[in-house]
Task: structure prediction
Amino acid sequence: MPHLQPGMTVGLFGGSFNPPHEGHLLVAKLALQRLGLDQLWWLVTPGNPLKSGNGLAPLAERLAHSDTMAGDPRIRVTAIEKTLGTAYTARTIRHIIRRNPAVHFVWIMGADNLGDFHRWQEWRRIAATVPIAVIDRPGATLTYLSSKAARALDKARVPERAARALPRMKPPAWTFIHGPRSAISSTALRQESKR
Result:
């Protein structure tokens, strides 16, 4: 687990990063800037329970590529879920918060994940445990904002102009952040590499 000081604000950005790409870096940099974060952790998962394991590069390879891609000392690449033996975000977040009670964490996700958030194990508990920043991605923004999870959490939505205060807000609290978007996706990169 990266080193932390009490009072810091830290973004948690999970994913398979299979492979990591400029879109991930764009989300990370936008979150660092708009949320005023001290650090942002790329939580490189051993696997994703909602996705097929086919084509998943070895964890060590994805970590190495993520380290190379990050290029910002505030972005910390970690395989904490492998170390903890957790496969689900809710458990990982609870463990991180328990170990660092004086740090302000915020979950970072691309808008495409908001569409499936209601399928995550204990998604309501995640929303009740940590504030969430949803970063816009190319596609159907309005569709993401009308997803089952977005509708269920509608009363907890914070205006984008208050994004900088989000990490210190009591959950549930979430915001949708607009900004530069990248159409690059790990799926497209994997398909292109097979050609």
In short: The chain has a mean pLDDT of 89.
